[in-house]
Amino acid sequence: MSTPLLIILIGFLIFLGHYLAQLFQRTKIPDVVGLLLVGMLLGPVFHLIDPAAFGRAGRVFTNLVLVFILFESGLDVRFEQLRSALRGTVSLTTLNFVVTTLVVCALAQAFTQLDFLSCLILGTILGGTSSAVVTTLARQVRILPQTSTTLVLESAFSDVYTLAIPIALISFYTGTSFNVATLFSQIVLSLVGAVLAGAVSGYLWLELLNRVPTLLKTRFSTPAFAFILYGLVELLEFSGPIAVLFFGITLGNLPLLRRGWLRTVLPARAVELTALEKDFFAEIVFLLRTFFFVYVGLSIVLDDPGLIALGVSMAVVLFLVRIPVVLASADRHTPQFDMALMSIMIPKGLGAAVLATLPAQRGLPGGAAIQTITFAVIVATTLLCTALFFLLEKRRILGFYQLFFRPPRPLDAASPGPDSGAETADSAERP
Fold this sequence. Notes:
Number of helices: 17
């Protein structure tokens, strides 16, 4: 595609993104669906744009999107929400990763010619969720803050598993060393190091803002610092997304803790965006999200009908097994609508697509099959997630999920849910 046509397409996509966002307000159909389909039409269907032409810029772009979305989400999280959601997040993330890995491995073993280790690699690649999709959808529905925080944290924490474990298994397959204790310590260090890096960086940045007030006059200094933090943490082989998320959480919470002796230690200034800055920042996030989901659609590789069908079937099974995972890990006081929403939030992201290319690059015999199945699961889970999100918003499938999730006691929880306005705890059973 020539440069003038590409520039025209960019302008068209911006208008399309705004139209789909307005369409969501009227119909509750997530804009993610339309953007993904446009990307697939431009890429794997009509081959108008080759995603390989973006090269490394494509991966840099996806990381920028994650930095913006997770940083913005972290600013809205309060320590009370984090404390109440953290225990459930760890159990949900771990249990979902284990169950997903085992289910995908079993299905691949039964219906493909892949050996057991290749099936296990495939399962670990698909064990996480997409931060961009989950955060986008979770912020478009009224649910308990704890539920929203749990979903955002799960999407960030799962990256630790889906990065460390598949790469370790691929290294073992290709003949390099593999040690369970080393792998476990790597996961723990990646998680703890990222949390500490984000929290300490948040404190230092707040101190710098207090000492250099001119930084507050620029609209982009704080996101720029978040970019630097992400890159440094990734260079240290920790989790950049988790560091950025906790950087935002720290910025939004530390000044609220200035009580007693902490008043002399903690910075006095909070990072609060003005109305103009919020509009500017929201527009940047909107543009990045628009191009991100189109890019995901462009990057899909669909070249084997049999493996594609298997990937779609895996996606359906994963949505079913997610129900007992949520049932086992969610707080018993969580409203039914929130539990149902947690059950559909398993879209796989571009991170899985990048990891799926590694087996073929490392010379694994089943590398091509792993890549095709992974891409099929990414598309299927994302489209199914957005479709189920639409149906759940309309309360069309809430009755199905109510068969599995017991309603909380009226005094325990009250989920706002769609169209509920300021309903009290007496309406906790229905969103």
